[in-house]
Queue: 3 jobs
Job 1
Amino acid sequence: MPATSLDQIVSLCKRRGFVFPGSDIYGGLANSWDYGPLGVELKNNIRDWWWERFVQKRMDMVGIDAAILMNPKVWEASGHVENFSDAMVDCTSCKKRFRADHLIEEANPDLSVDGKPLDELNTILEALNLACPHCGKRKSFTDARTFNLMFRTSLGVTEEGKQREVYFRGEIAQAMFVNFKNILDTMRKRIPFGIASVGKAFRNEISPGNFIFRTLEFDLMEFEYFIQEDQWEEYFEYWLSEQQKWLSEIGFNAKNLRIREHTADELSHYSKKTVDIEYNTPFGWKELFGLAYRTDFDLKNHMEQSGQDLQYTDPDSGEKYIPHVIEPTFGLSRLTLMVLLEAYTEEELPNGESRTVMKFDKRLAPIDIAILPLSKKEHLIAKAKEVHQLLLDQTNLVTDFDVTGSIGKRYRRQDEIGTPLCITVDFGTLGEEDEQGALDTVTIRDRDTLEQKRVPIANLREEIAKHWKKLRNTHY
Ligand code: GAP
C-alpha cells in the first residue's frame, strides 16, 4: 500500500532522520526544513544521478555553479522585478494573508485563475463570498494586491551609510544566460547545446506548505538548452520525453505521472509554451517538473540591458543570431519529496507481520548496506567490524553498523530507511555454530525479495557487486 497521507511521510522523515523542522529547538520557523543525515544522502544521490545523466554523459552540455547574489540589473532585465509576483488578499479580521488563486481554486477546483488580472480575481472572490480559512469570517478579505516573490537583502555599507539592495535569486536560470558569452568563449560549443546548474532558489511564497513541497528556499536542477528558433518544437518534445524517461529510470511508475499544458493565462512572462509533469500526491495532482520554451526572451533582454553582444555566430555559414531556449527544470527538493512518496510501501510479510519499507531505487537509497552483528558479544562485534572495514576499504558504498535491538527490529529499521542489503555476522561466521553456516561466511538479506543468502566473506565484494553493477558501477 502506498502512502495515503503526507503525515505518514512527515512522521517517518522526522523519526528516521530524513528531514527535521528547521530551527527545531526554538519552536521552528514556519515552512523551513533541515535535511538530516539520511535526507542529505537521498537528495545528493538524486542530484548526482541527474548531473551524471544530463551533464557528464552528454557532449552537448556543460555545467556551472554560480553565485546566489547577482547584480540587480539581472532581475530587471529578466522581468522578475516587474512580473514575478502572486496576487494575495489579507483577512481584515485575523490578519492572515492568502494567495487569491489558492482560495478560489480550493473553493472551485475547476476554475483556473492563474494569470488573471486583479480586477477579475476580485470579481470572482466577491461572487464566491468565501469565509476566511483561518478565522471563518465572511466578507473580511481586502482587495487582491500583487506581491513580489523576490527576497531582498542589503549589501555592504558605503561611506554615506547607504546599503545597496540586492535579491536572492528567484530562479537559477539567470546565471546561465548571464554566462552564455563566457561559455561560448571558453568551451567550443556549437548550437544546439545546454548549460546546466544546481543550487538554491528563494521565493517569498505567500502560502508555502505541504512539508517540503512548497518552501521559501529550495533546491533546483535545470538547464537552458540553446537552439535555432525553427527547432523549438522538435527539442520541446525531445526534452519532455527525456524528463519522462529519467523519472522512469529512477523508479517512478508512469501511472502516478501526467502532463498538463499551461493555459495562455498561466504562462510565465518569459514563456511561449510550458508543460508541467505532475505527480499524484496524497494532496492531489501537483507540479513536479516544468518544461518551458523561453524563446530568445532572456538573451535578448540581457543583450539590450548589458550592451554586450550575446549573439551566436554559426561557424559554417557565418550567420549571427540570438539563440532560442528550451528549459527543462527539475525541482530537487520537490523531487526528493516525490521520491519519498513513491518509495513508501506498507506490506504484509509471508509470516503475517507487516512492515513499512522504502523501496528506493538502489542508487538512491541513503544507506547501501547495513552490517548487523547478531548479538552484542564482544568477539562477534569485533568480527563484524572486520567485515565492515573490508567493505569500507574495497568499495565506496555507504554503510551503517547497527547493534541496537533484536535482529528483527534492526531489519525493520533498515527496511524503513530503504537499505537495499543487510549483512548479518553471526556465530557461524566465527565457526562456533555449524547450522548457521561455515566459518567466515555471512548472511546477505535483500530488502525487496527478503531472500537470505550465505556467502563466504572472501566472495562478499563480488556478491555485492551483482546487486549494484548495472546501476552504480562507479563503485567498482
Ligand atoms: N527557471 C524556471 C523556474 O524556476 P518554476 O516552475 O518557477 O520554473 C521550477 O520552478 C521548479 O521548482 C518547479 O517545477 C518545482 O519543482 C520547483 N519549485 C518551484 N517553487 C517551489 C517552492 N516554493 N518550493 C519548492 N519547490 C519549488
Job 2
Amino acid sequence: MLELAYCPYSNFPVGAAAITTQGVLVTGCNVENASYGLGLCAECGLVSDLARKGGGTLAALVVVASDGEPVAPCGRCRQLLWEHGGQTLQIMTKSGPIAFATLLPDAFGPEDLTARSTS
Ligand code: THU
C-alpha cells in the first residue's frame, strides 16, 4: 500500500495493513490534501477498507514507513482504531507486537456513550 500513498506535502508515504479476527485483510495508505490539516492517515483508509469489506474486529495491525520500519499510529488514529480493535488488537512496534491497551490506556470508547449518556 505504501506505493499508493499520495503524500506530495510530507513526502512521507505510509502503508497500513491489518487482519481481522475473521481473517480478512484490510489495507490503507495516507492521502494528503492541499489543505494540510485535512490529510488522511493510512489508518483512516484502512478503517474505510474494513467497512467496505463488511466490517469486523481488527486482530493485528502494522503501519510502516518507506524504510519498512513500523510507525506508531498517531493519537487521532489510535482513537479511530480503538473502535474497531479494542484492547486486544496487537500493534506492531519496532520492538515487536504490543496490545493496544498499552498504546492507548484508559481509552474512551463506545461503551462510555452507552453507559453514561443522558438518554
Ligand atoms: N501518517 C500516517 O499515515 N499514519 C500515522 O500514524 C502517522 C502519520 C501520515 C500522515 C501524513 O500524511 C504523513 O504521515 C506525515 O505525517
Job 3
Amino acid sequence: MPSDTSEVFLKFNNVKKSYDQKSLVVKDFSLDVEKGEFITLLGPSGSGKSTVLMMLAGFEGVTGGDISIAGQSVTRTAPYKRNIGMVFQNYALFPHMTIAENLAYPLQVRKMPKADVKERVNEYLNLIEMGDFGGRYPGQLSGGQRQRVALARALIFEPTLILMDEPLGALDKKLREQMQYEITRLHQKLGFTVIYVTHDQTEALSMSSRIAVFNDGVVQQCAAPAELYERPANAFVADFIGENNFIPGKVVKIAQDQATVAVSGGATITAVASEGLREGGDCVISVRPEKLFIQPTSHAYDNEVKAEHVTHYYVGDFIRYYFKFANGTEINIKVLNDLAAPDFKEGDEGTLVWLTKDCIAFPT
Ligand code: ADP
Ligand code: MG
C-alpha cells in the first residue's frame, strides 16, 4: 500500500449506501487501489458487493463518502464520462448486431474514425481468438464465446478501469476456469485495473492481486490471496475462504502471540493468538483439513489430540476422514491419496496431530 496518496489510482473514501434511508447496505467502505491491480470483492449474496460496483460505475449515488479516480472525485460525474468498461453475467450483447458490429459500437459512440474502428475490431477479435467470428450474430455463439465477446467489448475502447460483476456465473465449471485464465491473460497483457465481484472463493483466490472479503456491508479483511488463506483476520474469513475446522475452547495463557487453549474433554492446544484474544476468554481454534495429520505420520507436530473415527471416503486425489473429539467436536481431515493412507473402522481411536503455526485462536 503506497503511503504517498498521489500514487493511488482509485480511492473509496468512507463510502456508504442506503437504499431506504434507514439501513446501510454498504457501511463504511474505504479502499485504495493502485493502477493495474486486480481487486476482487468477495462475499456472500446480499453483502453489498454489486452496490459498490454500481456506485463506482455511477448507476447508483453514494449516501456518504467519496469515490475518486486519478485524484478526481467522480461521485458527481455521469456514468458515461467515467470511461469505465463493464462486464456482467448476462453478456448484454446486442442480438441484432453481428459480433464485429457489437465490438465497433463503443468505438463509434466515442467517434473513432471508421478505418481505425475496423482495425481495432480485428485486433480485439484476434485477441480473444475469435478472428473468424466477426460476421456471426450472438445467437450463433456458445455461452463461453459470447462472454469472450462481452469481455472484448468492455476492453475495446481501452478504459483504464474494468468492472466485472459475476461475469462467469452462468458458465459451467470447465468453461469458467478457461475464462478465468483468459481474463488473467488479458489483464497481464493489457495492464488495465480490475474491480471484480464474485461469491466464488476459488475464482477470487486464483485471479486477484488483492481480495476484499465482504460481510453485511463491511469489509472483514482486504489482503493478497495467500495472506487471506494463511492469516485470516477473524473466524468469518477463516470460514469463508477455503475450509476450516472450528474447535471451541477457553484461553488459558497468551505468550509471544501464542495461545494455550483448554478444550472441554481435557485436551490442551497451542495456537497462534489472533488480535483481540484475552486470557480467560472464550475462543474458537481454526485449523484447515489439509494441515491435520493422523498418527503415525512422518510430519512434525506440536498438538496431539485423541479422537474417534466416524467415517472416511475416497475423493480421488485425497481421502477425507471424519473424526470426533471426546467433547463431540467433529473434525475433518484431508489426507493426500497415497498407498499408505491409514485404514480405520467406525469407532476406532486415532490421534490427530498438527503444528501450532497452522491453527489460529479467535476470540468469540
Ligand atoms: P451482493 O452483490 O453482495 O449480492 P448487493 O449489493 O446486490 O449484494 O445487495 C446488498 C443489499 O442491498 C441487499 O440486501 C439487497 O437486497 C439490497 N439492494 C441491492 N440493490 C437494491 C436496490 N436497487 N434497491 C433496494 N435494495 C437493494
Ligand atoms: Mg451482486
